[in-house]
Amino acid sequence: MKPENNHGIKRVLRATGFSMKGLKAAWIHEAAFRQELMLAIIMLPIALIVDVTTIEKLLLIFTLFIVLIVELLNSAIEAVVDRIGDEIHTLSGQAKDIASAAVFMSLALCGITWTVVLVSRYL
């Protein structure tokens, strides 16, 4: 049964709690999320330190967050597909592959953005 709707600050607090629970689950159960988060923790200070424009700093930081967001969505899709059943089904595999491709694309975007910004600045 769906819980009763809360309004105002109570809803925001409950939603924040659910979000923290989701981040904790991703950290515990998803190695890729842990790796990408650790990489983002290392790269975030670099993005803040490098001598580039404010817009370029934002691009560097945004792409790090995009990778994490897409990885969370990928993990959610995988969990739902796995929950549905253990039997191998073409659509289940397709859903997982497409979600994985989204992660790949976000990583490519991040890598290209960082390369273009840093190479244009320092080479």
Automatic annotation (TrEMBL):
<dbReference type="InterPro" id="IPR000829">
    <property type="entry name" value="DAGK"/>
</dbReference>
<keyword id="KW-0479">Metal-binding</keyword>
<feature type="transmembrane region" description="Helical">
    <location>
        <begin position="59"/>
        <end position="77"/>
    </location>
</feature>
<feature type="binding site">
    <location>
        <position position="100"/>
    </location>
    <ligand>
        <name>substrate</name>
    </ligand>
</feature>
<dbReference type="GO" id="GO:0006654">
    <property type="term" value="P:phosphatidic acid biosynthetic process"/>
</dbReference>
<feature type="binding site">
    <location>
        <begin position="96"/>
        <end position="97"/>
    </location>
    <ligand>
        <name>ATP</name>
    </ligand>
</feature>
<comment type="similarity">
    <text>Belongs to the bacterial diacylglycerol kinase family.</text>
</comment>
<feature type="transmembrane region" description="Helical">
    <location>
        <begin position="98"/>
        <end position="119"/>
    </location>
</feature>
<keyword id="KW-0443">Lipid metabolism</keyword>
<feature type="binding site">
    <location>
        <begin position="87"/>
        <end position="89"/>
    </location>
    <ligand>
        <name>ATP</name>
    </ligand>
</feature>
<keyword id="KW-1133">Transmembrane helix</keyword>
<feature type="binding site">
    <location>
        <position position="30"/>
    </location>
    <ligand>
        <name>a divalent metal cation</name>
    </ligand>
</feature>
<feature type="transmembrane region" description="Helical">
    <location>
        <begin position="37"/>
        <end position="53"/>
    </location>
</feature>
<feature type="binding site">
    <location>
        <position position="78"/>
    </location>
    <ligand>
        <name>ATP</name>
    </ligand>
</feature>
<feature type="binding site">
    <location>
        <begin position="32"/>
        <end position="36"/>
    </location>
    <ligand>
        <name>substrate</name>
    </ligand>
</feature>
<keyword id="KW-0808">Transferase</keyword>
<feature type="binding site">
    <location>
        <position position="30"/>
    </location>
    <ligand>
        <name>ATP</name>
    </ligand>
</feature>
<keyword id="KW-0472">Membrane</keyword>
<keyword id="KW-1208">Phospholipid metabolism</keyword>
<dbReference type="InterPro" id="IPR033718">
    <property type="entry name" value="DAGK_prok"/>
</dbReference>
<keyword id="KW-0997">Cell inner membrane</keyword>
<keyword id="KW-0547">Nucleotide-binding</keyword>
<dbReference type="GO" id="GO:0046872">
    <property type="term" value="F:metal ion binding"/>
</dbReference>
<feature type="active site" description="Proton acceptor">
    <location>
        <position position="71"/>
    </location>
</feature>
<keyword id="KW-0812">Transmembrane</keyword>
<keyword id="KW-0444">Lipid biosynthesis</keyword>
<dbReference type="GO" id="GO:0005886">
    <property type="term" value="C:plasma membrane"/>
</dbReference>
<dbReference type="InterPro" id="IPR036945">
    <property type="entry name" value="DAGK_sf"/>
</dbReference>
<keyword id="KW-0067">ATP-binding</keyword>
<feature type="binding site">
    <location>
        <position position="71"/>
    </location>
    <ligand>
        <name>substrate</name>
    </ligand>
</feature>
<keyword id="KW-0460">Magnesium</keyword>
<keyword id="KW-0418">Kinase</keyword>
<dbReference type="GO" id="GO:0004143">
    <property type="term" value="F:ATP-dependent diacylglycerol kinase activity"/>
</dbReference>
<dbReference type="GO" id="GO:0005524">
    <property type="term" value="F:ATP binding"/>
</dbReference>
<keyword id="KW-0594">Phospholipid biosynthesis</keyword>
<keyword id="KW-1003">Cell membrane</keyword>
<feature type="binding site">
    <location>
        <position position="78"/>
    </location>
    <ligand>
        <name>a divalent metal cation</name>
    </ligand>
</feature>
<comment type="function">
    <text>Catalyzes the ATP-dependent phosphorylation of sn-l,2-diacylglycerol (DAG) to phosphatidic acid. Involved in the recycling of diacylglycerol produced as a by-product during membrane-derived oligosaccharide (MDO) biosynthesis.</text>
</comment>
<dbReference type="Pfam" id="PF01219">
    <property type="entry name" value="DAGK_prokar"/>
</dbReference>
<feature type="binding site">
    <location>
        <position position="11"/>
    </location>
    <ligand>
        <name>ATP</name>
    </ligand>
</feature>
<protein>
    <recommendedName>
        <fullName>Diacylglycerol kinase</fullName>
        <ecNumber>2.7.1.107</ecNumber>
    </recommendedName>
</protein>
<feature type="binding site">
    <location>
        <position position="11"/>
    </location>
    <ligand>
        <name>substrate</name>
    </ligand>
</feature>
